[in-house]
Write a structure and sequence with these properties.
mainly alpha; about 40% helix; globular; 8 helices; about 150 residues
């Protein structure tokens, strides 16, 4: 019974996040992702990706989660959230080579790249990767509030 409640709650959360129940949010148009699409199994837990620009762009181009991360059935079916990693994940030094498989060129003026680099307050000591400018597309670790234990 608890599992059923959990599944219903998560599914409702996905629909709310995607705007299916409340409708499109201001500024959203046809670039919204249908949470019942081929990526539905992923959106059950990763509902923030429904609105993430990099996810929407790839989805529109028919590049699904499986294309980059593999089927990841063990990950999708793991009830111990986060214990089983997706079949394919990318360390920072693997991001550019993965993106370059489809995106052969980066034809943005260097001034725009530098401006984005400064805007995002990126460290000049760490080589930039695609997701520094084109969206995080990662699950952030929870931040502990300072002064609270």
């Amino acid at each position: 019974m608890i599992r059923l409640f959990f599944c219903v709650a998560i599914t409702l959360g996905v629909f709310l996040e995607a705007g299916c129940v409340l409708g499109p949010q201001p500024g959203e148009g046809e670039d919204r992702i249908d949470p019942t699409s081929v990526n539905a199994a992923c959106y059950v837990c990763h509902m923030t990706f429904v609105r993430e620009p990099i996810s929407k762009i790839h989805f529109k181009a028919k590049v699904t989660c499986i294309k980059c991360h593999g089927l990841s059935a063990g990950h999708a079916n793991d009830e111990d959230v986060g214990a089983t990693k997706p079949d394919v994940i990318f360390a920072r030094n693997q991001i550019v080579p993965m993106c370059m498989k489809c995106h052969k060129h980066h034809d943005v003026p260097s001034a725009a790249v530098v401006a984005r680099f400064i805007e995002r307050k990126l460290s000049p000591e760490v080589p930039p990767v695609c997701t520094d400018c084109h969206g995080k597309h990662r699950i952030e670790k929870p931040k502990e509030e300072s002064g609270h234990e």
